[in-house]
């Protein structure tokens, strides 16, 4: 374990802190070689390639690609159950886009409005940072290595500040094993090789220290690679104590601190997503770890099976020693004539392997899928025979998804952590804009789209007005089934329940967008809400036009009025609500008066049956 005394890097300054940090990394790496060996094994199991290796002797080669193409091609048949299971599980978990919502709990009207705007702004930030695509990589990392890592950041280029989400390779994260026994380390380190030219451009004041690393006679270091001219850079965080003191964040090379600051957050900016939480330690348990034994056994049995096929399938010819058969006549010629005297030669083909061997291979292959909760049918994109109705398919999908609930929840938690980190990053950008001229001049906006409000542009400074009084929850972007049978039955259920019309049900089958259909159905609710909230925002009265749904307008305005009574809205807002209700009430009364003023329509004369005149038909109706 790394010492927590006064010699720790977070208690030192300057070059001493950098040297202590890198000595700490070397110590942890040498003590935790098992993790690097496991990562090396798991990445080979998943990819099926042998040209990736993780070395411990040289830190700069911690993750290194060996250009040996001959090792990529397998020379034998292989059942890669690790890859099949991970790909199936990854497709099932990531087929839905997770959407993070900003909600209030019993908030005032102003808080609800801010939460709705913050929700749309955060959605735009997620789109700009490509959160869904990068989280898919993070999720895949968690399946093969046990834990996936990302970090929220930003870049300033072309006069614009853009939010970004960066995927971090699991081999770049280093924590002390004993410091993280309970899963919550106090110190985290990230190492990455960076081109020397990039460091010289970004940190010109540290030019002498950076160039010193490249001098062969000075540092015989494992942190510089002369072939690629890359230097190992470490970013480290130490969490503060409960009173907020003692936290530190530094960016260092082996002989210098490039940047440093105090750290007052109680969580790391690195966002971790596990496949399964481990009972001890920081890193999670992945699918490759669960199936490593199955894959090893499969490889051995398949190798043995191939050897049996190559050796046992060759025919054997039995010739009696006393016979006068020439061995030269036993060849591969077509329709040969073999002369013999005495016993006729016999040829046999032995069975290449026992049937039990083939059954063992298939049994282990299927058990590997069941180990992670993936059925053989799901791995091959098939449904159980006889399961045809949409309801049955949905129930089957729900039952199968129960096995992945923990993995799905871990992905949702990662999205929530990304949202919180995104808000912190936006606030950091606004803070930099106050002190940095480049940031102040740069465009700091995100674009978002909403069906109710259309395309919107949000300035990042708006996040300061929104406060921290919101809850962050996940929301799936689509509830429509994937299979045609389920789509048809789900649309029929919505139509039968009266939620949508038959025409809307047909439209859903053509283009399965429930949000668009429900938006039209709820337009009579959303439009008056939009009008009322616009009035309350601007404090300017908006008069309804004659073609609106005035009874519904009055009902919704009355709800806002009652809510305003409870929440003590300002009198000017209450007066606007009263005027809006009065205007809609007048339209309702005018419609009622117009309906009452219309003369009753005369009953239409019934059609006369064949052979009966209209006059006779009327007389018969009057007699009745």
What does this structure look like?
The chain starts with 13 loop residues before the first helix and ends with a helix. It has 624 residues and is α+β, with helices and mostly antiparallel strands. It is built from 21 helices and 17 strands. It is 48% helix and 15% strand. Strand 8 (224-225) and strand 9 (230-238) form a beta hairpin. Strands 6, 7, 8, 9, 10 and 11 form a six-stranded antiparallel β-sheet that branches. The protein has a three-stranded antiparallel β-sheet with strand order 5-4-12. A two-stranded antiparallel sheet has the order 1-2.
Could you give the topology of this structure?
Elements: H1 14-31, H2 33-47, E1 52-53, E2 64-65, H3 81-94, E3 98-103, H4 109-129, H5 131-145, E4 147-157, E5 160-168, E6 173-174, E7 187-195, H6 196-202, H7 207-213, E8 224-225, E9 230-238, E10 248-253, E11 256-262, E12 270-274, H8 287-312, E13 316-318, E14 346-348, H9 355-371, H10 376-379, H11 390-401, H12 405-435, H13 437-441, E15 445-450, E16 454-459, H14 462-466, E17 471-476, H15 484-496, H16 502-510, H17 514-521, H18 523-538, H19 550-567, H20 571-597, H21 614-623
Antiparallel strand pairs: 1-2, 3-17, 4-5, 4-12, 6-7, 7-9, 8-9, 9-10, 10-11, 13-14, 15-16
Helix pairs in contact: 2-8, 3-5, 3-8, 8-9, 11-15, 15-16, 18-19, 19-20
Short description:
The protein has helices at 14-31, 33-47, 81-94, 109-129, 131-145, 196-202, 207-213, 287-312, 355-371, 376-379, 390-401, 405-435, 437-441, 462-466, 484-496, 502-510, 514-521, 523-538, 550-567, 571-597, 614-623, and strands at residues 52-53, 64-65, 98-103, 147-157, 160-168, 173-174, 187-195, 224-225, 230-238, 248-253, 256-262, 270-274, 316-318, 346-348, 445-450, 454-459, 471-476.
């Amino acid at each position: 374990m790394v010492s927590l005394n006064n010699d720790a890097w977070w208690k030192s300054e300057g070059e001493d802190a950098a040297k202590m940090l890198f000595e700490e990394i070397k110590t942890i790496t040498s003590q935790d070689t098992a993790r690097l060996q496991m990562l090396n094994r798991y990445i080979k199991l998943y990819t099926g390639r042998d040209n990736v290796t993780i070395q411990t002797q040289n830190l700069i080669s911690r993750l290194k690609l060996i250009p040996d193409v001959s090792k990529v091609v397998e020379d034998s048949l292989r059942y890669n159950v690790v890859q099949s299971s991970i790909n199936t599980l990854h497709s099932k978990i990531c087929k839905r886009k997770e959407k993070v919502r900003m909600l209030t709990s019993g908030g005032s009207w102003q808080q609800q409005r801010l939460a709705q705007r913050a929700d749309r702004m955060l959605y735009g930030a997620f789109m700009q940072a490509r959160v869904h695509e990068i989280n898919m990589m993070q999720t895949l990392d968690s399946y093969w290595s046990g834990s996936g890592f990302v970090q929220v950041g930003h870049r300033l280029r072309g006069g614009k500040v853009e939010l970004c989400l960066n995927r971090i390779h699991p081999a770049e994260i280093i924590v002390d094993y004993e410091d993280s026994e309970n899963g919550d380390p106090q110190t985290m380190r990230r190492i990455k090789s960076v081109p020397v030219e990039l460091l010289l451009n970004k940190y010109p004041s540290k030019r002498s220290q950076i160039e010193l690393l490249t001098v062969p006679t000075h540092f015989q270091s494992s942190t510089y690679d002369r072939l690629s001219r890359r230097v190992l850079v470490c970013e480290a965080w130490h969490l503060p104590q409960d009173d907020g003191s003692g936290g530190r964040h530094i960016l260092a090379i082996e002989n210098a601190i490039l940047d440093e600051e105090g750290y007052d957050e109680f969580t790391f900016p690195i966002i971790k997503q596990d496949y399964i939480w481990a009972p001890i330690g920081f890193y999670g348990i992945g699918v490759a770890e669960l199936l490593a034994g199955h894959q090893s056994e499969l490889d051995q049995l398949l190798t043995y099976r191939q050897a049996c096929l190559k050796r046992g399938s060759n025919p054997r010819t039995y010739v009696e020693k006393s016979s006068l058969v020439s061995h030269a006549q036993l060849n591969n010629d077509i329709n040969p004539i073999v002369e013999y005297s005495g016993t006729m030669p016999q040829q046999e083909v032995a069975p290449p392997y026992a049937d039990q061997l083939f059954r063992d291979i298939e049994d282990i292959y299927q058990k590997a899928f069941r180990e992670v909760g993936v059925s053989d049918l799901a791995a091959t994109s098939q449904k159980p025979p006889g399961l045809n109705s949409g309801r049955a398919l949905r129930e089957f999908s729900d039952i199968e998804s129960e096995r992945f609930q923990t993995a799905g929840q871990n992905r949702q938690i990662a999205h929530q952590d990304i949202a919180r980190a995104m808000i912190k990053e936006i606030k950091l950008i606004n803070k930099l804009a106050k002190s940095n001229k480049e940031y102040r001049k740069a465009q700091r906006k995100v674009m978002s789209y909403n069906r109710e409000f259309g395309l919107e542009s949000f300035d990042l400074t708006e996040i300061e007005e929104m406060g921290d009084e919101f809850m962050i929850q996940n929301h799936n972007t689509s509830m429509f089934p994937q299979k045609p049978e389920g789509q048809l039955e789900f649309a029929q259920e919505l139509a039968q329940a009266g939620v949508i019309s038959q025409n809307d049900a047909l439209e859903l089958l053509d283009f399965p967008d429930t949000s668009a259909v429900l938006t039209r159905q709820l337009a009579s609710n959303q439009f008056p809400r939009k009008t009322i909230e616009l009035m309350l925002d601007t404090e300017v009265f908006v008069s309804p036009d004659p073609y609106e749904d005035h009874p519904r307008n009055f009902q919704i305005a009355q709800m806002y009025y009652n809510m305003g009574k409870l929440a003590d809205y300002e009198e000017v807002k209450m007066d606007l609500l009263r005027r809006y209700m009065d205007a809609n009430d007048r339209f309702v009364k005018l419609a009622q008066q117009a309906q009452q003023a219309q003369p009753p329509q005369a009953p239409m004369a019934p059609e006369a049956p064949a052979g009966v005149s209209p006059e006779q038909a009327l007389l018969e109706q009057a007699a009745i």
